[in-house]
């Protein structure tokens, strides 16, 4: 779970973890290339990246 605001990322990660998913929160700003590359590197620490879901703007909260 990533967000520019870590409080948001942590809150959603907690909800998803409580629902049975394995989620970590990461600060990421989609408007900065370096931030995106760091996000990708973090994901690669857990194995090959096979999918990305961009849920920006779809959360009811």
From TrEMBL:
Source domain of life: Bacteria
Q: What is the protein's name according to its record?
A: Uncharacterized protein
Look up and give the organism this protein is from: Veillonella absiana
Lineage summary:
Bacteria, Bacillati, Bacillota, Negativicutes, Veillonellales
